[in-house]
Amino acid sequence: MLKIAWAPCYAHPLPAGHRFPMIKYELLPEQLLYEGTCSADNFFEPEPLPEADLLLTHDPLYWQKLNLLQLSRSEERKTGFPLSHELVRREVTIMNGTVQAALYALQWGIGMNVAGGTHHAFTDRGEGFCLLNDNAIAANYLLDRGLAQKILIVDLDVHQGNGTAQIFRHEPRVFTFSMHGEKNYPLHKEQSDLDIGLPDGTGDARYLELLAQQLPRLLEEVAPDVVFYQCGVDVLASDTLGRLKLSLQGCRERDALVLRSCHAHKLPLVCSMGGGYSSKLFHIVEAHANTFRLAQEIFF
């Protein structure tokens, strides 16, 4: 059975001026239930992640400052969010959503989180709407417990997964692959194990061609036990922060390529949604919903 992490706190703690990009966390589950792609049984509500599991990835001093709301003004501005206890609880709950999705993936072949993909969070700081790094936390959780020996992180958000690259730069058991807008945020790119920077305006054909060249090779050469997929939809042409030109169909074909490849290799796949900032809310929800529709179609 497809299991999807979602909790009411995913959607609520931000002031009105920050909420537009977050509305998708409310609308996406409603759409999946309305159209019959998912039932209530597909969703589970994670608890906040225990501190010990968080500290497998993040610096204790940073976590203390974050938890006690003691970030400096500069540090807070870099996250993009006004800091609050509600926001921190939301983030810690999202972290466990991806951890639990990873455990479900080991059982069912795929596990998903309506939120997550917080790839701009570093070991010791947050940036770009990311306070903690869920894929890194879940990957370290599996490694720490011997549930995986080799992990591949496929990051197809339009922005480079700079925090993820930094966290795993000295960890040979985790291979980081980021395909992103070359001139987009962040200005300073970290070094992933494989980075593909795309020029502004890259459309469906070239994007899918590059992905089809790289992903099968990585699955063979890296030989992972588990794949984490950051499937941000800010690659869409309508995205206000993206600068690429993928259509809704092209984004769907991207997801299909990743999901079908992992299914064919019998690799557990963990999906977190990542970014999406289109001015057309329908495009955000529809593009994310396609990922869940494909999961049901391919894995079940």
UniProtKB/TrEMBL annotation:
CDD domains, per the entry: HDAC_classIV (cd09993)
Domain Histone deacetylase: 24-280
Pfam families: Hist_deacetyl (PF00850)
Keyword Coiled coil applies: no
GO annotation terms (biological process): epigenetic regulation of gene expression
Entry keywords, A to Z: Hydrolase
UniProt GO molecular function: histone deacetylase activity; hydrolase activity
InterPro entries, alphabetized: HDAC_classIV, HDACs, His_deacetylse_dom, His_deacetylse_dom_sf, Ureohydrolase_dom_sf
Record-stated family: Belongs to the histone deacetylase family.
Descriptive protein name: Acetoin utilization protein AcuC
Lineage: Bacteria, Pseudomonadati, Bacteroidota, Cytophagia, Cytophagales
Protein's gene: acuC
